[in-house]
Amino acid sequence: MRNESYHKKFYLIREDVLPEAMKKTLDAKEMLERGTAESIWDACHRVDLSRSAYYKYKDTVFPFSTIQKDKLVSLFFYLEDRSGTLSKLLGVVASSGCNVLTIHQTIPLQGRANVTLSLNTSDISMEIEDLLMELRKLEFVEKVDVLGTGA
Length: 151
Description:
The chain folds into two domains: about 15-60, no CATH class; about 70-150, 2-Layer Sandwich (Alpha-Beta Plaits), CATH 3.30.70. It has about 150 residues and is an alpha+beta fold. Helix 1 (about 20-35) crosses helix 2 (about 40-45). It is elongated and about 55 Å long. It has helices spanning about 20-35, 40-45, 50-55, 65-70, 85-95, 130-135, and strands spanning about 70-80, 100-105, 110-120, 140-150.
C-alpha cells in the first residue's frame, strides 16, 4: 500500500487567508515545541481550539520556517539600479548565515534590475521570515518573492 500523503501537492499560503483553526493549530504546536504548554489539551485550551481540530490539522499545516530548515530557497528581487546594491544585499544574506549557491542578475532596464538568489538555509541564524523582512527593509529593494524551495 503506498503512502498517499507522499503524493499530495503542497502550497505556500499567506497567514491572513488561513482559517482560524489552522492558525490556532500552529500556535498550539509552537507552544508544545517550546514547552510552554504541558500537553495537547493544555495548548488547545490556551488557544481556544478543540482537540479534534488540532488533530485534524496538526500533520498538515506547518510554519514556513520549519519547512525551510536544511533546504534550498530561491528568492527573486526587484532592485533599483544603484551602485553597490548587490553587495549590500549579499551582506545581509551572509550575516544571516545563509550560503549563496547561485546569483543571476539581469541587465538593468529603466533603472531596475532583477536578481535571483539560490540560498542554502541550513546554517541560517534567524527565521526565514525575519530574513525576508530584513531584505524588504533595504531602501533599494522594491520587492522580494520566494520562487521556490527544495532539498
